[in-house]
Each structure stands twice: as structure tokens, then as C-alpha cells.
Amino acid sequence: MAIVKTRHLTKRFGKFVALNGVNIEVNKGEIYGFIGPNGAGKSTTLRILLGMLKATTGEARIFGKDAWKDAVDIHKRVAYVPGDVNLWPNLTGGEVIDVLLRMRGEVNKNRRNELIEKFRFDPAKKCRTYSKGNRQKVALIAAFASNADLYILDEPTSGLDPLMERIFEECVIQAKNEGKSILLSSHILSEVEKLCDTIGIIREGKMIETGRLSDMRHLTRTNFIIRTKKPVPSLKDVKGIHNVRETGPELAFQADPDQIDEIIRYISQFGVVKLESTPLTLEDLFMRHYQEINHSGQMEDS
Amino acid sequence: MFERLFKGTGSLTKLIFRQQRFKILVWLAGLVTVTLACASSYPNVYQDVPSKMAFAMTMDNPAMVAMLGPGYETEDYLASFGTLFAHECLLFTTIVAGIMSILQVVNVTRNDEENERIELIRALPVGRLAYLSGGMVVMFTTNVLLALLTGISLALLGIDGIDTEGAFLYGAILGATGLIFGIITALLAQLAETSRKTAILSFSVLIAAYLIRGIGDVSNETFSFFSPLGWAARAQVFVDNYWWPILLAAALSMIIAFATFYLNSIRDMGAGFLPERKGKKQASPILQTIFGLVFRLQRTSILAWTIGIFALSASFGAVLGDLETYFADIEFMQAFISNEAGESITDQFVTLLIAIMSLIALIPSVSVVLKLKGEENKNLTENIYSRAVSRTRLLANYYLLAVIVNFIMQLMIVLGLWSVGQLVMEEAIAFGSTFTSAFAYLPAMWAVIGLAGLFVGTLPRASGLVWLYVIYCFIVIYLSEVLDFPQWMNNLSVFEHVPEYPIEELNFAAMAVLTFIATVMAICGMIAYNHRDITG
């Protein structure tokens, strides 16, 4: 059963269309990466899922219940970390963590203290003195100390240092191993790539691509960096080669998967000194996608 | 040296002015308009000598002196409308000018610092004191504008007894008082670490200045000279036109400004000289309830209001004894003020005091409800609504707190007036009737609380408009006779429907209707709140 499911979710603010027919499906035990640039509609979608905004049309269901009507019921099993964590300035971090935990149900003191320790967080300071990263820690501790079945995380690591980011990843993976579902919105692609099973890409309120990460990678190219004894002539004209760039003595390009054999044969004639191949990162994927859209857009214009 | 400290002041002044210009415009327009409206009403209201005599006698009693300042000799009231106007309006307008400056300075000092806007500026090649200087220039300019606009427009009214020099002095007193409280706020912004604390301290100083002047004016004038408001009340505008209060205010402002700039130059950004304490690592069981949280978020301001309302009521209570002696001496006054036989004049004054105090006491309750919208603006409600808390539950807790605060404030009015009044009066006011008189206002106050809830539910962005209604109610009580409102306009104020116990009988029907209206608005607000988008 899908834990989160939206169908043709549309949200308008006056004339502005924030979401236009968004479909998302997060299954049990799955980490769903929800990717898009700033202002694409990620947070709006999450706020609809949390029952704070009412969808103009379409449907949003969590645990099979209506996200707007059954919000309170749903939230007993949901933990949420907002993208921009705002806290009550005159409460301490420790107080806020307890308050937030209590609003869902019982407070698991051990788990709470363990996480405070793990994130190296000082709970005795007033929230107004915390930096962005520390405010984020409050939200993360409150989320992972709760015994939720679904975690909704909106760009949760944007203020954390790499060390804390790793602890965050551990928490996410632990939750996944316990069979929990995670909806992770981000524009940090490496994070999504590392953690997610499925991704959905949103742009200007529309989903432009959804699928399992492994399937999407299959459709894409591989990055190559080579150095040869003799210069390689007319590399650009070889079939299946894209984006050729010269960096000093090295050549970098992308290759279509079905042409790799041919390409290797061709370049090996020139005495290969160095050959590096890496799978495309999500970043490349993302860029490529936008390029295509821009291309087709331009073509339509002309 | 100058470069190091003040470079960029000019452009920062422009920047701050741009941010504040709308507020400045509204404040100045409002202040000048109200001043003109008041001033021009006096010739109509006090047309003959007896009415001016009556005014003079009313104003000479200690309660009025405590509220409005010492005033003038009787012959001055007869000679000029300016004196009537100045005595009744000047002190309150200076307080409003003070509030304007306090809010503005809190905004451009600690608030900008707290929200890290000053950090952004300080990273640019600007002097250490440039932002503070810019803020001070804007505050100074605002008050100079207030002084000039008030002076010019009063002079142009051409009312008998409002001469040009007096008009400009009147404006200058407003500006100078605004300046002093603005600069005091700037000083306090260096001491406190947050904008909240700055505002609380500044308003405390303003209230203290008013109280010290009130006590001084009634008992010992020396006290009054410790309060800038005491100076303002002694300028004898439109008669002797003393300018020394302005000079004194300017000199004091210079000294405080110097201290402010010095403190600002030696402190770390974001730090204050009154440091915050180390907090608790865990939430108490009370804080872990929704009501506990809602209360905790407003605890400080509720406490401040409780003390403030008690202090204000107690200081009014303190003059009741003098009032009693005063009225006992003048039989004529008794005949004049008391229309209904058998009513004690003290009762009438107590009733009027309770009406005005109740309106002031309404402010914290309405603030409690509006706080929910404030929390949403700061994206804080999402912390709550992403957990298992319904909107009905949260709003209901805000209503509950508002009603409790309302109850406490009325109790403070009663305790303040009664406890101190009892000490100083021969024939003390009865606790029972004072209590009834104050608590008769509850249903009307609930109606305004309900209205606030209705705004939060239906027109969240315009929820501040509820303050306009509170101000309207205040105008009806305080000025309706001067401005000669028709009855229907008076009726728009819920406070008009509150029985003035013990002068009037308790009207349970009216109270029931008010309670009903309050409930309906509160429920409609809640239904709408449940159906709208929560933006944060």
C-alpha cells in the first residue's frame, strides 16, 4: 500500500498556479527523493500533505486518509522537519524538543537524550541564539526521537556541516531499516542520490520525471575522462559522444551506454594513458533534463 | 576616527527611512489629524463663561490633575480656548508621540539586529555606528516633522487663544517628548539583548514617567521634575509659553545619545549589557501542554500588563482620598456633576475610571488572540500543526487564555482602586460594588476578543484592524461629547452598552446579548480558521 499518494494535486494562490497536477507515491519502507529548484512547489506540496494548505483540486492521502480532513489523526504517525526551522525565541532548545515531542504523544527520554548527544547539541540555550544549523538540529532531534511511520523532511540538511550530515544520513537509513517511509525534499542532489530509492522531479509546479533511481540511471550516459599519447581527432563527430570538453591534456565527455564499446575501440588507437569513467550524478541528470526542456522550448518558440 | 565610526550614515539613513516611511506617514497623519480635530472642537463645546468655569473646576480636582497634569489658573481658561485644549490633550498626545518613537526605535535598532539585517550592513564598508546614527537621524527627523506639522497646522486653524508661538511650542513639546523616549529606547536597546526586552523596558520607562508625574503633580512637584512628561505639563502653552522644557529635553537627549553611541561602539554585535540567563534543558510538565505553551509564549507580557494595570489603578486609587475631600469642600460641584440625587461624586469618578481602565485592560486580551496570527507570520504554527494538534484545539486555548487574562486584568483594576482607595478615603469605596462595576465590562470585552478571533479566522492579514475598533471605543468614551457624535455612532462601541454600575442598574439582558455576540463571533472565527490555509 502506498503510504503517501497524491493525485493531480493542484494549488492556486489567486492567479498564481503553485502546483499543477502533482502525482507522488511513496511506498512503505521507501525513501522518496523530491527534487526541484527553489520555488518549484516542493514546500507547497509538503504543506498540503501536512493539512496546512488546502489543495485547490486533486487528492492527497497519507496512510489512506485524507491529508486535509484527517490531519490530526495522520500526524500521530508523521514526523516533519521544515526547510526553514523557526523556533520560539524565548524557549530553550531542550524545551522546544520536549514540547514538539509531546504534541505527538509520549516522549521517549532515552532516544531524545541519545540524539542530543549524537548531534552534539546544547539544549540549554534560548532558541533565539541558535544558528540555522542548530535550529535544524532541534527539528531533526524532535523528528527522529519520535516513533513515526512517515518522515517528511524538507531540505533538512541545508544548515548542517558534513559531520552532522552523516549523522542525519545514519538516522534516515536506520528509519528505513525499521520499515519507515521517508519523503525527502531537496535540491542537494548528492544527498538524494545517496539515500533515495525513488525520485520525483518537480519544476514550476509540475512533475517532470518520476521513477526508481536505478531505472533512470539506466537511461543516461556515462562520464569519461581520458588522456592519450596522440591527440584524438574529431572526437565530437563520433556517434554517441556528447559534451566534449578539453581540460589541459585531458578530454572529458559523456557517452551513450549503447555506444561505449565503439567509443573505447576508437580512442584506444591513440594510446590511452588514463581512462576514468563515472556514472552520471543526479546533478548531471538534472542539468540534462533542463537543457532538453529549454531546447524543446526554444524550438517551439522558433 | 569619524570615518571609521560613521561612514555610510547618509545612505543608511535613506535605507531606514525607506523602510519606515509608510509607518511614519500614518503616525504623523494620525497625530496631526487628531490634534486638529480636538483643537477645533473646543470653541463649539465651551461657548460661554459658565461652561469654561465648570471646566476649570473639574480640571482642578486631584484625579484630573493626576491624569492630565497641573493645568492653568481659572482666568487662563476663561481667556483662551488654547488652555482648555492644551490641558485636556497635550499630555496624552505626548504619550502617543512617545509610543511612536519607542516602536520606531525598537524596530530600527534591536529588531534589525535580531533579524540579522545589521549583520549584513556591518559586513559592508560602513562605520560601526552608522546604522545606529541612521536610525537616530530618522527618529529625530520624524519628531521634528511632528513638531513642525503640528505647529503649522494649529497656527493655521486661527482659533482664538491659539497663537503662533503657542502652536509651535505645542508641536515642539510633542516632538521633544518623542525625541526623549526615542533616545531612551535606543539606550535600552544597547542594554537588552532582544527587541522584546527593549520594548518592555522602554514602555516601562514611559509608564513610570507618567506615574511619577501623576504622583508628583498631586502631592509633591519635585517628583514631577524627574519625568519628561512632568516638564511637558509645565510649559504653560498658550499662556506663558515656557520653552525651557524643550531645552531640557534636548539637553537630556544629547547626554543619553552620547551614552548610547558609546555603549554601541564597545559592545559585540548581537550582545547586550543585560545578558540572558542559561535556560532549562527540559520542558516542565506544564509547558508540555498546549495551554502551557500558549501561556508561556506570552507570560512576560501578561505579567507586565498585570503589574502595569494594577499600578495605574492603584495610582488612581491614591487620588480618590484627595478627590473626596475636594468634593466635600465644594458643594457647588456636587450639584453640577451629579445629575441624579443621592449618588456620590466619587462613585461617578470611579465609574468613569473603570470604563477607561477596562479599555486599556482590553489590550492584553486582544493581543493574546492576535498572537496566534503573529505566530503564523513567523512560521511558528507549522511546528504545532505538523503534529497531532487540531486547529480547534489551538485556537480554543488562545481564547481561553484571552478570557483568563481578561479576568485577571479586571481583578487588578478592582484591587488597585479598592486597596489603595481604602487607605486614603474616609468613606471607602465598597469592594463589592467596585468589583461588580469592573466585571460588568466582561461581556463587552469578550465581544472584542471574539472580534479578534473572527479576524484571525476570516481576514488574517487585516487582523490588526481590530485595534482600530478598540481605538474607536476609546474615542467614544473619551471624546464622544467633545466631538458630538450621534447616538448610533456611540452605539457602535460595545462599551456603550455596559451598565455603569453603581450609577445605573445592572442590565443583564444587554450583558447576555453581548455574551451571545461574543460567542457567535468566536465560533465563526474558529470555523473560518479551520477552513483556511495556514501560511506558516
TrEMBL record, chain A:
InterPro entries the record matches: AAA+_ATPase, ABC_transporter-like_ATP-bd, ABC_transporter-like_CS, ABC_transporter_ATP-binding, P-loop_NTPase
GO terms, molecular function: ATP binding; ATP hydrolysis activity
Domain of life per record: Bacteria
Pfam families: ABC_tran (PF00005)
Domain ABC transporter: 4-229
Stored SMART domains: AAA
Record-stated family: Belongs to the ABC transporter superfamily.
Name the record gives this protein: ABC transporter ATP-binding protein
Species this chain originates from: Thermoactinomyces mirandus
Upper classification of the organism: Bacteria, Bacillati, Bacillota, Bacilli, Bacillales
Automatic annotation (TrEMBL), chain B:
Listed transmembrane segments: 84-108, 129-156, 168-191, 198-216, 242-263, 302-321, 349-370, 396-418, 438-459, 466-488, 508-529
Domain of life: Bacteria
Keywords: Membrane, Transmembrane, Transmembrane helix
Protein name: ABC transporter permease
Organism of this sequence: Thermoactinomyces mirandus
